[in-house]
Amino acid sequence: MENANIVVFEDDTFLREAFGPLATAEGHSVIAEAGNLADALSVVDRIISNEILADVIVLDGNLGFTDKSGNDAREIIKALKPAADRIKIVGFSSLSMAEYGLNVHAESGKSVTKVLKAIDNF
Fold it and tell me: How much of the chain, in percent, has pLDDT values that exceed 70?
């Protein structure tokens, strides 16, 4: 996918802030971001209402440093279901997210390069 409008849900501030310039260098735009579950769900509401027109969401499985269950990603994916026909998700996770019926590509580890390559391949 070229010129993707990207939303980044990542709790690691350094990684979240580094993603924008790297995505821009590849011809994409980061149009919104969130570092915790509450903010991410607020952005999801804006995506569902078409206030934010996202093509791709980059999603960390856990939006906090204490919970490693992947429940944050699952909650966000469930909330995105009404936009499933127009949103692609690239996960910083090896979670099985396909069960939610969304177009999900999971990357294990936190490699911005791999995530950008996955976006280009959509």
Answer: 79
- Cα–Cα distance, 63 to 39 (Å, whole number): 10
For residue 8, give the DSSP letter. Answer: E
Q: What is the pTM of this model?
A: 0.83
28 found inside a domain: no
What is the average pLDDT score of the chain? 82
Domain that holds residue 69: 1-17+42-53+63-107
Alpha-carbon distance values, 72 to 18, 35, 61, 77, 86 (Å) = 22, 11, 6, 9, 21
**d(Cα 5, Cα 65) in Å, to the nearest integer?**
27
Asked if the structure places residue 115 within a domain, the reply is: no
Q: Which of 68, 69, 89 minimizes the C-alpha distance to 78?
A: 89
Interval 14-42: pLDDT, tens: 888 888 999 999 999 999 999 999 999 99
